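Fig. S4 source data, part A: sequence.
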Amino acid sequence: MANLHAEASFGLRDRRHDALGELRVLPDEVICSILENLSPRDVARLSCVSSVMYILCNEEPLWMSLCVKKANGQLRYRGSWKKTTLHLENVPVKYIESGRSPLHFDGFNSLFLYRRLYRCHTTLDGFSRDSGNVERKDGMSPEVFNRDYDGKKPVLLKGLADTWPARTTWTIDNLLLNHGEKALRISQKSVKKMSMKLRDYVSYMNIQHDEDPLYIFEDKFGEIIPELLKDYDVPCLFQEDFFNVLDEDQRPPYRWLIIGPERSGASWHIDPALTSAWNTLLVGRKRWAMYPPGKVPLGVTVHVNDEDGDVNVETPSSLQWWLDYYPLLVDEDKPIECTQLPGETIFVPSGWWHCVLNLETTVAVTQNFVNPKNFEFVCLDMAPGYRHKGVCRAGLLALSDDPSLEAEIVDVCRRDDMDFSNFRRKEKRMKIREEDDMPQTERTDESFQYSDVQKRDLCYDIDFLATMLDEDRDHYNAPWSSGNCIGPREMREWLFRLWIRKPEIRELIWKGACLALNAERWFDCLLNICRFHKLSHPTDDQKLPVGTGSNPVYLMDDYVVKIFVEGGLENSMYCLGTELEFYALLHEFSTSLQNYMPEILASGIIYLENGSFTVISWDGRGIPKLIADCNLFPVKYSEENFPFGLWNKKQYELRRSGTSATDLACPTGSSQIWPYVITKRCQGKMFAQLRDALSQAEIINLATFLGEQLHNLHVLPLPPFSSKFSDVPQNFKDSDSFMEVEPCDSKISLEWKIFFRNLSNKKMGVSSHLTKWGDPIPDTLIKRVDEYLPNDLTKFLPLSEDDHNLDEIWTPMWIHSDIMDDNIQMESCSGNSNYNGIALDEVIHRGSSNGQRSEDTHGMSWRPSHILDFSDLTVGDPLYDLIPIYLDIFRGDTILLKQLLQSYKLPFMSRGASQYESEEDGKFRRLSYRAMCYCILHDENILGAIFTIWKELRQAKSWEEVELAVWGELNSYNHSS
């Protein structure tokens, strides 16, 4: 009001009322937030609307936000963010460099814009906090660190980097001189990957005036500039890292080179997967603020998605927090803080909130690690569900007013001699609430004290946190959080490798496995199955499920036990039922394929009832009463020989393909019933374990073997077609979306209709599906995917010029659909093929990284012996089977693909040229086009594999370019040659 009176006295009129019209009711920060969500061209147009809109639309922070959202790949700063964005928009240079002076208007002021301008131009000379309350220690021994600090509290450590060459060589000038042309990743609030040449970044640092400047945060610096790895060593206090058992390309990002100017930094966060971290500063000064686990900083909001547990943190920039929030804190609510000086190393324990502000240009190196002190917390963070993740980050404030939990918390407090009232307060800052039918964990802005360190121990006790796990969430079925540091398959591989390589801490590893994947339940299932079939008791080595598959699999001395879990009970029954039907069919026909498949010894169903397990045998024929009582399956199929065989499985897949992702997130069927199968254990090793140790001749031999076995599989007759399948379309007649994609050609056989209808259902949501998968799939291609895919997938079927139906010749075939590197068994042909005599630590050994034979395979040669895991059997286009083989086993090697095709010797259906065929329809003659469409519509992220193998295709302008680069070899295939 004072400003308005002052303007009136000088005869100035407030522009805001007239210039913004109806928008004047919105605060400036809201208008600026809206502008950030527009395109650069729309913002440019809006700047012409009025004088105030001109001011708002020409703010550098706005154009920085627009540029960060637009940029993808390598970025070059052009002196201002508006110019940089216009270059990205391909605006002609003459308009960008027009030289017109900016317009200035009186009669308008904005406290919001002023504060932002102040933050952009402030200096931080007075921000140092040398008298912080983080302990500084020099010459600490590992024993003292483990006893007093690891897993407990932060500490600043001197002397750990005194002998590093990086202390003198990692200056900005030296790095610029030696590595100026290297592109390094930039950290900003963007899902896209941005990088800048170091030379360009240093130029940007020297001229920028940003509130939250771009920040080099490169986790691949060891690959980009390998010599930097020689300039420092992991300090002795932090050398134990459980992720070391993974191959370098499997482990999550764990080390970063960090370079940033004054005002840059990391806003409030907890390190990924609740890992601990050390950070050594080499140049400059950093100010740190930290809170113990469960103490959410003022101004920070935590959201936890109740579907997959993904955690999203909304936080102001580091500088804004120190300027706007820190002064509001009473002394007892202030963070633990310090100023880190060059040569000092700070340790941040697992789960601690921390915020970093660079007081001047800084260079640092940091690494995250997992050790015995935080291992269980890392495993807990990977467990499915969301409530435990909210409690890990927000403490008891993340809990709703749940009386049952209240009693449990009181009990824990009594055991620990604590006061419950200190933890369970009515004025919670975190709560579970429902918003737009999406319950989330949210924090309000009220405050609470935590002066006693013990107060945080209750909400960060691993046993207490484990009570927050959702017992109904099955690790193998629950959605995997995109924020998890590794995928579910990699997590299972990691735990198994730890189990084998670190037997001295198996008790700890077992606790972690029980948290992450409910290993105790699956082991109880195994024990009861072994007892029922009078099999030997599993040894301690065999306690954890092996491999990276989607179901628990146990390797015993002479046999393998697989428990079907993926997709819920109904899906599991069809997977095992189809596999059992297939094995029965093999015995009716003389085919060599059965010589290369493991023998089935037994199969059945195990279920949990009233706290105890019961096991029954089942060979795939008929419906067991236990299953019939579930009322999940149509009674009319009970008279069939294999009610869960191929054709009924296809009906189930059709139902599922029309189901929303939300419904699929909670699979139908009881979570206490699991089918299982026991097969004879094959001698040798999986191809995945030998890949790097095999010679080129051995891999060529594998390609020949796979072509021959695909031939045998694809010529095997299908079981009799179920007449009851004709009822399936009735399930969809009320669905408009289904009618849009239903193949309309009445001459197409029902078998092919089943296959293409399933693909058509997937095609409807393909854009959003690919967007969810995201990087490395290029955004430009995702936007064009609908125009690349055919409107009518049945055009892939070969029809003659007179439109005569040829599906009597081209019929669907059995397809394995999952022949990957862990489903190929290799045996030694050098007189040492006894798999049972090989130590388990060698079983999981994948060979050396340089391609030489590893010690355990030296002097041995290997040949393929078995194809494993036929539970994903289905029927369709045999071209489908090439996708996992070519991309996973061959890694895109066209020589191996050609070798496979030479031994395959079967034609793939394809359309011949037709005088009635349009130029547009000519693409249907290309096998490469069909294969590429199948990749796009695949249930798995096949495109992620493609753009990882062929990195250059990330710059592709069209799907045709990708298609021909990946699958072009198929177009020259002639089965008779």
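Fig. S4 source data, part B ends here. Residues 126-297+335-372 form a domain with the Jelly Rolls fold (CATH 2.60.120.650).
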